[in-house]
Write a structure and sequence with these properties.
Blueprint (H helix, E strand, L loop, with lengths): L14 H14 L3 E5 L14 H14 L10 H5 L9 E5 L6 E4 L4 H9 L8 H19 L4 E8 L21
Parallel strand pairs: 1-2
Antiparallel strand pairs: 2-4, 3-4
C-alpha cells in the first residue's frame, strides 16, 4: 500500500497530485480503479460529502482518463520506464447512481477491521460500524446477499476479447 502525503481537509486536484496518482497507476497497471463518486455533493437522505472525498474522486478519474494512458502526460514518467497504461473500468462508490453490486458477505468483517485502523479519523466507531453494517445489508438485499457494496461502474474501454479494433485496442467508450 502506498500513502500519498496530502493534507487532511485541503486536498487539491492539481498536476502534482495527478502525477502521484499516474505514477501509481503506471506502476501497478490495474484493469480497474475504485474511487469516490466525485459527483456526490449532497445525498438525498441528507448530508454533505466531504471535500477531500469529492476531490480524491475527481483526481482519480482525471488520473485514470486520460492521464495514465497518455504518453504526453508526464513524459518523464515514460523516460523512467513507466509506460502509459489503459485502465478499463472505474468503480465509483458512495454514489446514488449505482449500477453494479458486489457481494461482500465474506469480507465485511475484514472491511470493518480495516476501518478500525483509522483511529485518527473515526471517533465513534460503534456508530459507524452499525451504519456500515446496515448499508451493506440493504445493498445485499438487492442481490440476495447478506452484504454488498454498490458502485457506479464506468466502462472506459471494453475488454479486448469483447470489443477489439483491428489493432487490438478497444475504443474509448465512456458510459454512465
Amino acid at each position: 500500500m502506498t500513502f500519498l502525503p496530502q493534507p487532511d481537509g485541503a486536498l487539491v486536484n492539481d498536476l502534482a497530485l495527478r502525477e502521484l496518482l499516474v505514477r501509481e497507476l503506471r506502476t501497478f497497471r490495474p484493469d480497474a480503479v475504485v474511487a469516490n463518486d466525485p459527483e456526490m455533493v449532497f445525498w438525498t437522505d441528507g448530508g454533505v460529502n466531504h471535500t477531500d472525498h469529492r476531490t480524491a474522486g475527481i483526481a482519480a478519474v482525471d488520473a485514470v482518463y486520460p492521464a495514465a494512458r497518455n504518453p504526453m502526460a508526464f513524459p518523464w514518467l515514460v523516460r523512467e520506464g513507466l509506460a502509459p497504461h489503459r485502465i478499463q473500468r472505474l468503480y465509483l462508490f458512495w454514489s446514488e447512481r449505482a449500477n453494479v453490486w458486489v457481494d461482500t458477505s465474506t469480507t465485511q468483517d475484514r472491511k470493518i477491521g480495516a476501518l478500525r485502523e483509522h483511529a485518527s479519523q473515526i471517533h465513534d466507531f460503534e456508530e459507524l460500524e452499525k451504519r456500515l453494517s446496515e448499508w451493506a445489508a440493504k445493498e445485499g438485499r438487492r442481490i440476495g446477499a447478506g452484504a454488498a457494496d454498490a458502485f457506479r461502474l464506468v466502462v472506459i474501454d471494453e475488454d479486448e476479447s469483447e470489443d477489439s479494433g483491428p489493432d487490438g485496442e478497444g475504443e474509448a467508450a465512456p458510459s454512465a
